Amino acid sequence: MHMRKAAGVVSFFTLDGDLLVAERLAVSPWAPDQLSGTAVCGVLARQLEAHCPEGFVPARLTVDLFRPVANFPLAARSEVVRQGTRIVVAAAAIEQGSA
Fold first, then answer.
1. pLDDT at position 7 over 70
2. Residue 55 zone, left/alpha/beta (φ > 0; ψ -120 to 50; rest)
3. Which of 11, 28, 25 is nearest to 69 (CA)?
């Protein structure tokens, strides 16, 4: 996942090695020790786009957040679960080592 912060560009996350570090926009307005669900879903969606073959358009995204995501650096991973001629099913997850 490549992310660069250009001058004047606002982002949800910045890349620190292999980890994504939350910027102000990614932090929950109600709990500064947690990340916004919107930002977390964006990370997962972007991760899944890597598995979208040319000509395919993502049709559905389902995210299960089992608990609030802590405001700590995170890593995202994804894999193809099923790939056919008309459908690609991929799964993504975030991991936090110190949360």
1. no
2. left
3. 28
Which H or E element spans position 8? none
- Model pTM score: 0.82
Under DSSP, the state recorded for 25 is: G
Give first-to-last CA distance, the chain, whole Å: 21
Rounded to a whole number, what is the largest CA-CA distance in the chain? 44
- In the block, which residue shows the tokens 């193809």? 80
Secondary structure letter of residue 51 according to DSSP? T
Nearest Cα residue to 77 out of 86, 65, 67, 90: 90
For residue 91, give the amino acid letter: A
* pLDDT exceeds 80 at position 43: yes
Distance of alpha carbon 59 from the chain centroid: 17
- What is the C-alpha to C-alpha distance for residues 81 and 89, in angstroms, rounded to an integer? 5
